[in-house]
Amino acid sequence: DAGVTQSPTHLIKTRGQHVTLRCSPISGHKSVSWYQQVLGQGPQFIFQYYEKEERGRGNFPDRFSARQFPNYSSELNVNALLLGDSALYLCASDTGVNTEAFFGQGTRLTVV
Amino acid sequence: DQQVKQNSPSLSVQEGRISILNCDYTNSMFDYFLWYKKYPAEGPTFLISISSIKDKNEDGRFTVFLNKSAKHLSLHIVPSQPGDSAVYFCAAGGSQGNLIFGKGTKLSVKP
Q: Which chain B positions have a beta carbon within 8 Å of A105's beta carbon?
């Protein structure tokens, strides 16, 4: 069984550009969450989607947006990239009912 | 303001001995807690969880203890193995269905 898959694994962008990160959840999981992890910190919650509806949003600027598709895959979009957006972006999926979340390997974004 | 705190950035343990990783939280509304292990260049891997209605959960070498009155939980690994060397994150279930993570503790298990 495939776990949570994220693409791309690495990418480099220039300040001011836009980026789209993609995530496919574990089969049967209807909830997808996005987290940002910077060096020396734990993952910080960005968004959660359940059944294609936004269920929660963390303390991130409006430059960050996301959506979930009918097949439960998800995209995270970041506009007007800043140097401080450089981080590991993690996607997690779960069944949506207070259970453990399973993480993908992450996308390492570097903004130069 | 951190709601989940792991006050020890690192811990070194001899192989075969017990590793104890600690975590404190401030929000009494959290209703479940989890531990994740993370290797470099990989996403966090789920280890074990505990509901707030329990005080102990065990899975093989891993046991999590919850002390609600002290708002404290701990992860015990016994016996510790060199392959356990990784960063361990404590997380709590938030009101939005999200997880709130501590900063992590780097465990080194020496042969």
A: 41-43
